[in-house]
Task: structure prediction
Amino acid sequence: MTKYPRQIALAKRLIAEKGTLVTWQKRGVAMVGGTAAKPAGAVAPVLIENVPMVFLPSKGSGGLAALFSMMGGDNVDIPASGTRALLAPFVGLETLTDLSPNDLIQFGDVTYSISPQNGIEALAPDGVPVLFFLRLIL
Result:
């Protein structure tokens, strides 16, 4: 039995209700010791479609800025063009190791990348992800 099933279900439900659907593109690059490394041979990108996500403004979000400050310590600055997003665990995107700064997020005609510095964080009591916090850049 998974820990925190009610909290995960609530995060999924609220993000599905309040958010929008995006396409997540997992590119054929792996992180090895914090450095991008291409696996042997060409790897085609994997698309995960209809991923519910909530986009949040980077500035003027009040309580959200305080939450990010508590989670990220002193290094919470993102570019003015940056966007924050919330993601609940989703098939293929269930743990921190499933998400990579090399991934791309497609929303309509806009493609976002994940900030390479502290771009992915999780609310994960006992190591069980309930909610992912993303810092996106154009």
The longest helix spans residues 5-18. Residues 73-80 have pLDDT under 50 and may be disordered. The radius of gyration is 15 Å.
